[in-house]
């Protein structure tokens, strides 16, 4: 017996060819403020565009009511940089959908380790350090720090943080720890979804001296006594154990909650049950109603 498979077509999210559009035909969703222009990110984009041109195309969608107009979905800072540099046109990627959520919330930006590998690749291809520093809007010293990012970081910790936005100085802090503690610290960062310098410093402060690279040198942290450090070390170990327990049970717990909510919602749709609860167990009824509210459940 032969089974015929239904042919399915996948709709393309973009038109096949890039288009070059004048700026007057592109309608932005918001105005780039002076505060945005003063940000490090804006300055990096400006330096990169000036040095090597626009790398990532601007994303637009066609206006359904005006064939000669486009809505800007992604690339507001890039568009503003091009305008500030006196350009009048930009190469654009035309989206077949007009939603901007994906570009702002679901696109993975270049992580710190990915940038490090990109720098190594560029240098291996013969790109001068000065030009690369100009393109990234950093000085030579910072570029060297980025190039040597993983020197002293164990492979396991680097693997855990390979797609995370970890502060550059955060890696310098991790280098003060021995490999096994680097792995523990990276696991905590990922579990807590915190990759800031302050969090890395707190992990360093909670690290036992025998897990530091220079174990013979006591840790000197202003404003923190030795007793407080020992307490932080114990609390850090307890927190790590609790995080592991939550990770192990999270999937099953969430599934049980979804099934339980669905069952309660089904009961609450029965008028006889809600009437019975209101007459005999009026304290339960508001709680069940709150459980079945989507907003309360997802929060």
From TrEMBL:
Keyword Coiled coil: yes
Spans traversing the lipid bilayer: none
Domain of life: Bacteria
This protein's name: ParB-like nuclease family protein
Coiled coil regions, renumbered to chain: 222-249
Organism: Yoonia maritima
Translocase as UniProt keyword: no
Domain spans labelled ParB-like N-terminal: 19-113
Any Pfam family the entry gives: RepB
InterPro entries for the chain: ParB/Sulfiredoxin_sf (IPR036086), ParB_N (IPR003115), Plasmid_RepB (IPR011111)
Keywords noted in UniProt: Coiled coil
């Amino acid at each position: 017996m032969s089974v015929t498979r239904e042919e399915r077509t996948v709709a393309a999210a973009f038109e096949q060819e890039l288009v070059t559009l004048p700026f007057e035909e592109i309608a932005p969703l918001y105005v780039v403020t002076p505060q945005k222009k003063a940000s490090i990110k804006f300055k990096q984009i400006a330096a990169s565009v000036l040095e090597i041109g626009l790398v990532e195309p601007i994303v637009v969608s066609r206006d359904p009511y005006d064939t000669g107009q486009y809505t800007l979905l992604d690339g507001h800072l890039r568009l503003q940089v091009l305008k500030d540099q006196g350009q009048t046109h930009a190469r654009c990627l035309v989206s077949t959908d007009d939603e901007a959520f994906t570009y702002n919330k679901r696109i993975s930006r270049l992580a710190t380790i990915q940038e490090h590998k990109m720098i190594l690749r560029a240098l291996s291809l013969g790109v001068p350090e000065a030009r690369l520093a100009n393109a990234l809007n950093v000085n030579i010293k910072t570029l060297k720090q980025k190039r040597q990012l993983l020197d002293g970081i164990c492979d396991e910790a680097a693997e855990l943080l390979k797609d995370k936005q970890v502060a550059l100085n955060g890696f310098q802090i991790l280098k003060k720890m021995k490999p096994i503690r680097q792995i523990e610290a990276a696991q905590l960062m990922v579990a807590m979804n915190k990759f800031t310098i302050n969090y890395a410093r707190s992990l360093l402060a909670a690290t036992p001296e025998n897990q530091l690279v220079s174990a013979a040198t006591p840790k000197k942290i202003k404003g923190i006594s030795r007793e407080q450090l020992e307490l932080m070390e114990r609390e850090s170990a307890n927190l790590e154990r609790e995080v592991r327990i939550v990770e192990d049970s999270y999937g099953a717990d969430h599934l049980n909650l979804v099934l339980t909510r669905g069952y309660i919602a089904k009961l609450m749709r029965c008028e006889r049950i809600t009437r019975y609860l209101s007459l005999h167990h009026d304290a339960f009824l508001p709680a069940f109603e709150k459980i079945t509210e989507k907003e309360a459940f997802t929060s």
